[in-house]
Amino acid sequence: MISQQQKVVLARAEVHSSQLLLIDEGTSAIDQAASQVILHELFKSKRTVVLIAHNLPAKERALFDRELALTA
């Protein structure tokens, strides 16, 4: 189930008409099925989506065009 705070953040992202959407751990507390639905909805727009995540499942990673891995 999506937390209330995450719902607010994702709804706010839809209200603003920015061409860039930066999401920091936006799907971390959401189950994989709900994450897939949210990401598919976000990708329906023409904006660029940058998602920062630590343990993004391969199924969700496959939705993106590019992946950058930062290591220490």
Brief sketch in words of this structure:
This protein has 72 residues and is an alpha+beta fold. Helix content is 38%, strand content 14%.
Describe the structure.
With 72 residues, the chain is an alpha+beta fold. It contains three helices and two strands; from the N terminus they run αβαβα. It has helices spanning 4-15, 32-42, 58-61, and strands at residues 20-24, 48-52. The mean pLDDT is 78.
Tags for this model:
72 residues, alpha+beta, two-stranded parallel ribbon, 38% helix, 14% strand
Sketch the major β-sheet: 2 strands, parallel
Number of helices in the DSSP assignment: 3
Strand order of the largest sheet: 1-2
Mean pLDDT: 78
Low-pLDDT sequence parts = none
Intertermini distance: 33 Å
Task: Kindly name the structural category.
Answer: alpha+beta
Helix proportion of residues, in percent? 25-40%
Strand content: 5-15%
Radius of gyration: 12 Å
- Order of secondary-structure elements: HEHEH
User: Quick one: overall form?
Assistant: globular
Total beta strand runs: 2
Topology of this protein?
Elements: H1 4-15, E1 20-24, H2 32-42, E2 48-52, H3 58-61
Parallel strand pairs: 1-2
